[in-house]
Amino acid sequence: MLHIINQSPFENNSLDTCLRMALPGHAVLLIEDAVYAATQGNALQERVTQACAKHSVYVLQPDLDARGLGSKLLAGVSPVDYGGFVDLVEKHDTSHSWL
What we know:
Elements: E1 2-5, H1 14-21, E2 27-30, H2 45-54, E3 56-60, H3 61-66, E4 77-80, H4 82-91, E5 95-98
Parallel strand pairs: 1-2, 1-5, 2-3, 3-4
């Protein structure tokens, strides 16, 4: 399963809920304001780093760049472009968008 999160982890609990519900081997894609969770030096850094051990964690690079955070990407999080986003959706049988 591909879990897609677009909300800031500092404004709602979608990321926390997703990470509690996601099974080992599931993929997590952070887009829009959720990309803040994939950066160094934030309050969720340890949580996202731990998630990388159980899940494939991706971030939409254009959204990261649009927020000026391209150089702050956490180790273990894989950046993808729009084509990579499409590839992830095609690769997984199901996807769930967390609102």
